[in-house]
Amino acid sequence: MNALHIIKTSLTILLLPILSLPVQAAEVTEGRLIAADKDASNWMSHGRNYGEERYSPLTQVSDGNVDKLGLAWSYKYGVDRVVEATPIVVDGVMYTTGAYSMVYALDAKTGRELWRYDPKVWRGIAGRGCCDAANRGVAVWGDKVFVGVYDGRLEALDARTGKLVWSVNTLIDPDRNYTITGAPRIVKGKVIIGNGGAEFGVRGYITAYDADTGKQAWRFFTVPGDPAKGDESDTITMIRKTWHGDTYWKQGGGGTVWDSMAYDPTLDLLYIGVGNASYWNPVLRSEAKGDNLFVSSIVAIRPDTGEYAWHYQTTPGDSWDYTATQHIVVTTLNIEGKDRRIVMQAPKNGFFYVLDAATGEFISAEKYGQANWAKRIDPETGRPIIDWAVADYWSTSEPKIVFPGSQGAHNWYPMSYNPNTGLVYIPEQVTMEYFEPLKEATDPRPGVPNLGLVIPKVPESLEAVEELAGVYRGSLLAWDPVKQEERWRQQYEHIANGGTLTTAGNLVFQGTADGRVLAYAADDGEKLWEQPVSSGVVAAPITYQVDGEQYVAFNVGWGGAFPITFGALAYRTHVINDSRLYVFKLDGKAEAPAITRRKIELPTPPPLEADEATLATGEELFGLHCGVCHGLSAMSADIIPDLRYLSDQSHKDFLPIVFGLRANKGMPPFGDILEPDQVEAVRQYVIKRAHHWRDELIKQDKRRAEQAQESQN
Ligand code: CA
Q1: Counting CB atoms within 10 angstroms of each CB, which of 24, 178, 446, 540 has the fewest?
Q2: Cα separation of 73 and 109, whole Å?
Q3: pTM value?
């Protein structure tokens, strides 16, 4: 061994402990977040800056070279289910989340896992709350990472190690179906989080906690509660006047703040997006009277105290699940020659809104999507001119079909705003809903949506599914918020496409429900780059820079409210659950993971033996307890098994499964709700559906063979 070798070896030994330390720990401060626009390398908060523009000033990747993007690295998640998170990148470390609120810290340059944190959410709970085991990401502040956990916890982790620092329960009532799927936001040292669950009957609120200690700082309720307990504030007394009867507070009223928040440091206002009313049916909820504040509203709050500043209600008296929880952007627009600080949103209801950020004053709104519930927004009052002939499903005897449906003309998939082009990039979609009111409310049950409506029957015919699928189409829409008009559009075959990112390189990035990631020119929409990925994409991409190289990261993992509730349509994407993070850079040469797409095989169901009465009982019970997850989930990419495809073994284990055998996989136990003979009736109905489906598939094969024959002739 020569001297040089010894020196080299000793150096390596000396350096090893340093090299194996986690990459530099995060230190996010208020100053850094306020100056985020000048810190192009990082993506330190959910929407990149406090105004949540999702615009990156990075230009290394541009419209001139984006076709040279190649895979830098990819990372396989611990659970193959929905991935909705926007990753956070601070000084070379990425923090992201997957299904069941699991947190992952990765080296942003290499993808090496630094730590992972599993909050150990009971897997069965995902069947009892809204919208899949989703999580939209963490917040970082100081040396801590914050995650909202599906079961209602808010937790702080040590950013260097992933070790739990503190944990609080944010729920006001453990017996209600509250969830947390949103990303926390942090303003002035307070971590702010809301909940989901309005479909099940809950009361909406957000809570702020001290980032260091987890101590509650304030709570803001979005709807009034039990009047016997007294109003929490003058604001509650004010909004109670917009509610009628005494069912709303028993049911909860809704108004959950399950996703959007944005902050304006100059005005010192926090903006929250408030969800739909509960029940949906306004007769059961509020005697079909009143605006029912603050449902379907943007509300401005003072972040120090949680005091109300102003509100604007996008859908007064919402009765169609028209949440205003969609992404809020705060920015400056030049309107009629004057720079104005504004708030903008494309909520579910199909109108694009521009409001004054200081006062909530209505500036403008136009239809960005297909919407027939209202004709336009009255510019004097800022209220919609509702087309009651279409929208009123409760005082007529006819069920109604209304556009958009509960999936919205735009859902939570974040939009982005590019100050260079002046355009907003919206994951737009065409959806509709069938409304048939119940005359009387049903009792709340765990995991069963309680809307005050007849849950529509599953379309069992493939032709009907194809017909519906012709309606449910999405697009990437470039919208001019000043002129309130479309600039360009890229059409997709499916809805539920991913959120968007726009950059100073004149680019827009988006992933799609059918498992692709794409880049377009931000100014004219020309498609510049496309790659297939392992699953459907619903999350929004981000971009960041480490050691002088720009990276573009896509979270990939199909799932969420759409495939769970509209699986018969979602199956057409043919994607499977293979959840990964894909990170690209110019001339990246990493090997791409193998991609599997779903093939549709003919099932061979057991023989159908039950009598008509049993099948009718089974159908009713299925509709009540199973249909919401398993009903429309025809081949919904294994998110929730399509019961028509049950194996022989699963038929044998049917009763134990319904009673809890697969609770850990996400199947809630129904032992406290169903008797064994009722479970068997459900199974018989499942067998009937399987036979019907098999016949449909055979018919389809025949049709296709005939079509092929015809085109040959
Ligand atoms: Ca809803």
Answers
A1: 24
A2: 8
A3: 0.91
